[in-house]
Amino acid sequence: MKFVVDAWSKGGGRAGVLQVGSCPALIETPALLLSTRKALPNFIPPDLLRSLPSPDSRLLQFSPLHFLEGPSANTISDIGGVRSLVSLHEFGFAAIPRDSTAILPEFDCTNKLGASFNTPSGRHLLKPAEYMRMLAAMKPDIWASLSDEVPSRATDKRNKLSVDRTVKWLDECIALSPPGTAGFGAIVGGWDALERQRCAQEVAKRNVSGYWIGGFGLEETSDQITSQLLRVVVENLPEEKPRLVSGLGLPEEVLRGVAQGIDLFDSAYIHQLTTGGFALTFPFEAAKRHSISDGMSDGTKINLRADVYRKDTSPIMKSCHCYTCMNHTKAYINHLLNVREMLAQTLLEIHNTYHYLGFFQFIRRVVKEGRFQEFHQEFIETRRGHSRVVPADDVCA
Amino acid sequence: MALQFEVLGRFNRARAARLTLPHYQCQTPLFMPVGTQGTIKGLATNQLEEIGCQIILGNTYHLALRPTTELIDELGGLHEFMNWPRALLTDSGGFQMVSLLDLAEITEEGVTFRSPVDGKPMLLTPEQSIRFQNQIGADIIMALDDVVKTTITGPRIEEAMYRTLRWIDRCIKAHEKPDTQNLFGIVQGGLDPVLRDICLRGMVDRDLPGYAIGGLAGGEDKDSFWRVVAQCTASLPEDKPRYVMGVGYPLDIVVCSALGADMYDCVYPTRTARFGTALVPAGVLKLTHNAMADDIRPIDPACACMVCKNYSRAYIHSMVTKDAMGSQLLSYHNLHYMMKLSRDLHSSILHGKFPEFVCKFLQNMVLIFTLHIDVFCCLKSTHIHDAYDHRWDIVNPLTVTTGQLVLLDLSLHPAPRF
Ligand SMILES: [Zn+2]
Ligand SMILES: [Zn+2]
User: Fold this and answer.
1) Could you tell me if A68 lies within 8 Å of chain B, comparing CB atoms?
2) pTM for the whole thing?
3) Where do the domains of chain A lie, and which CATH numbers do they carry?
């Protein structure tokens, strides 16, 4: 793995390029990791995955715990690792124990031996050695070390414990690190800035390729505290290594992360929108975010289950060039949702991913142009001002 | 009449033809996947084109409930609505009502049923069915017929057959778009050759663009099934397409094609995919079986589809019945298998190699079947070990032998007799 930061925007935000082993193209950061189920997108079939912008869409996140349902580590190893398993040879893969949807940390059951997760096949206590054995078979390009993630409500004592365990497990993971893979040191510490700082400082001392910041998106969040915690963490990390965060997915959260110097984002946001029947429609340019209130949108997304789309023969966004918008109408997707047909999710996941990759591309542009801070501020203000803002497609056309 | 049917090649009764419909030029024999509600199991329309689907079937009953045929009409028809550039066929809606709704009742006027939406009694007449189908706008539309289970006997069969003949005239009269949509009549008459013959003659007299053989695939034994198909194909005009409704097992398609049928439809390939079963030359492969968990071979090593080129049985095994993508990938393979079968039938008939194709097709299945009943001695041992794989699920052995006999009896020899 190679990583170079090549632009800093005044007052926050940095742009860089990341190159991972199997993915020949350079992936520009800040970048979005596409979430998967068993290393394939939830609903986008592999042939349509290639219709998404490249190389933007070439970084996939998966949880090794997805494979508790099989295939076994031996079989995956026989096939040649997770990349061969899903036949996406020109893609990069990042292994993170939790996936923010089906695999979630269960901090009450985590103990000194390993981290506990709720999975579709039951609760599982994952020990560092077992985790590293999985990674040796799956051969991801990037992996996050095993961590003891705690939610915001954890006590001071529990926060401290989470840092102690995470740092200890990091050493165990590094010792068992599969060759040719890039290990990212996990940084936790709950909602406690001092513990976060301590964790970041400890992890920064280790020989890792990058950093993974956990503990977000688990329970209630506070914008202010998120920014503060990220700042404390990033301040204590070397500049030349990439920083990946899980659990920050909303546009505002992404901007907040970028402002603090985060390079890679992994979240369940697209998945949640898609399964909820929502399509992203927000324009990136400030000038295009007018307030038109017809009550159908919060300015970010539209709910395609809504009856108003029954006869709407326009695409989700007229300006969008994704497979869905080039081929299908809102009326058709509305029908597919009504009759519970799986194609609805396929079409929505394609559009939402395409749109969000565009948002990241826009972020990279404003960072490089040195105007990230004003874009960020303006974005937050427009959103706050017009929480009922709408039809993005009208203003985008 | 809005179609052209041109027979390009024959082998005895089997024929390979070009069927030109308003939206697509098809090659027969062909299998039509069922896209009940304007979509097929998570597959995108460009994937369906890639797989080689020529005609997709839509269910009038479901589409009339949601999104309603008025809406489809208003938005430019089903082709436009689902963005499917190739051909479509809709059924009459009658079969769905009779099979899905317990309280459906058939009278001379039409099919009376309770609306699943509000429970009110509703009536589907031949006129209404055609109106719905005119609104949907498929290339081929089906007449409303009086459907009776083939396992029923007695005067009800006769009544249904005559009623079907009376209703076809009402359908023809109600059909408003004969220039862009082709109305197919359905031959009924149960398993009774005399009733079938009366219906056949009545239908042929009406000079319709195409004909369907109805009332089969409902649990009758294979011998009776094939005999009816053979009788119908023998009497239907040579220059019109023949469609055997509800037929979708690969073996049945091969046999019916040998008997001179051209078109088939069935939910089987996609439904069975949902339960984790793949169609393969030897029959079916249950991906849910534990033996698949560590099997790194593709579903069918000989298959050239996107799924077989890229995924192992082990991976599909971990997905089927658990993840949406599992049934999506398996549906893709199964439909690809059916399309390949259709193409192989077409080209083998066209190139005079139909008997070879059928023999090979049956051998693949028969080999397994023979092993199953322990008749090892007549087969070369090398083959036995290759194929003796307890993971293959066995089709009903009787099906295979009867199928083979019927084929040998009726098709592969000249001068078939009934
Ligand atoms: Zn789009
Ligand atoms: Zn295949």
Assistant:
1) no
2) 0.93
3) 2-273 (3.20.20.105), 280-288+300-379 (no CATH)
